[in-house]
Structure formats: C-alpha cells, structure tokens
Design brief:
This protein is of the alpha+beta class. Helix content is 58%, strand content 8%. The protein has a four-stranded antiparallel sheet, with no helix packed on it.
C-alpha cells in the first residue's frame, strides 16, 4: 500500500471507532432522559406542601394527594390519567398531554435504535435526533404550562 492509502485507512478506522463510541454515549444519555421523563410523568410530586399549608398534600400532573387533618401523616391520592376529564384544571391537562407526548417520543426513539440493524446509521441518527428534539420541545412546553406553587385549592376546583 502507498503511504497515503495507509494513512487514509488509519484515519478511517479511527473515525469509525470514535463514531461508535459517540453513538453508544448518545444511547446511554437517551435512556437516562427517558427514565427522567417517565418519572416526571408518573410521580405526583410537582407541587408540594409547606409549613404554612393547613394539611399535607401535593400535586402531580394528573394526580393530587391530600392528607387528613389528624396527626397521622396518611395521604390519599386521587386521579388517574385514564380519567382525563377529572384532571382538576386545564393547565394540568395541557401539561399532562405534552409530557405524555414527550415520553412517547423518547421511548419511540429508544425503540428506533433497533433500526441500526436494518438501516443506514446516518438515517437512524437523523430519525432519532428529530424525535429527541420534539421530545425536548414537548417536555419544555409541558413544564412551562404546569401551574406554579402559588396555586391553591380554589384554583383547582378541589373539594
């Protein structure tokens, strides 16, 4: 082989090794983002109680939990995403929708990683990049639409 061909092959091998490492890192960070996204959607701990609240409780996207007036700290949770009409406010409904859409997109992106076995890697990277971008936009939109901590029972139409 000519020296220029050997150098070209060396650079190509180095490039391929580095691109695979970057792809693995991207997959790891995507899985981490998916875990965070699922936890954010499921957990009802978006807004919590404080020292000045009359009784313990907290709100999630589609679920709210309140405690009784007694000394025991037992908390009962109400609401489910399957009962979308019972979500207390329009802001929580919109935030729930956008965070759910973000979660579905990022889980779909993880599923699309299986396309590496069937498609060109550049095509898979482009598909996953667009899905992740849309997931981030929807997650941000859901976070910005969620009501803030100054929200009261009267604002949520709770009993």
């Amino acid at each position: 082989m000519l020296p220029s061909q050997e150098a070209s092959k060396l650079y190509h091998d180095n490039y391929m090794r580095n691109s695979r490492a970057i792809g693995v890192l991207w997959a790891i960070f995507t899985i981490c983002f998916a875990i965070i996204n699922v936890v954010v959607f499921i957990q009802p701990y978006w807004i919590g109680d404080s020292v000045s609240t009359p009784k313990p409780g907290y709100f999630g996207l589609f679920q709210y939990c309140t405690g009784d007036d007694g000394n025991n700290r037992e908390i009962k949770c109400h609401g489910s995403f399957s009962e979308f009409g019972n979500i207390p406010s329009g802001a929580f409904k919109a935030a729930s929708f956008f965070v759910l859409l973000s979660m579905v997109l990022i889980l779909g992106c993880i599923t699309c990683f299986a396309l590496f076995f069937f498609c060109n890697t550049a095509t898979v990277y482009k598909i996953c990049a667009w899905m992740q971008l849309l997931a981030v936009v929807n997650s941000k939109q859901g976070s910005s639409l969620a009501p803030g901590p100054s929200l009261g029972k009267k604002d949520l139409n709770l009993k």
